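Q: What structure does this chain adopt?
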Amino acid sequence: MQHRKPLIVLIAVIFSAGLFAAGAFTAIARGWGSPLVRVTVHNESEGEVQSLVLDISSCGKRDSLTLPTLGARRAHTFQFPVCGEGGYQLVAIGSDGKSLKSEAYVESGYSVDEYISTAGFRSSTQAFRI
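A:
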């Protein structure tokens, strides 16, 4: 019985290491803890978007990401880092010259879907990809 004790400890250590590795792999694969925010813009309209401008604010800094055009029924994903939390304003200019605006508060790891239609923006935010 005395020499079975180290074997049980070894099995427990191997099992625990396997569980830790599985958890770490899952966290990496799902983007948990990522400092990045993903904003995917879906153009659900029949017309082309002439310009997309994403103004970002985080850590007391401001930045802008742009996309010159987004075709009808197309999507584009912007990715940007935030230090814990931040915000953005998205401006889309349609082929008719009208502009649409959307803004949101975001935190690290958020994934946001912005849908452009003739009625305006519709947003869907996921805190973590599950």
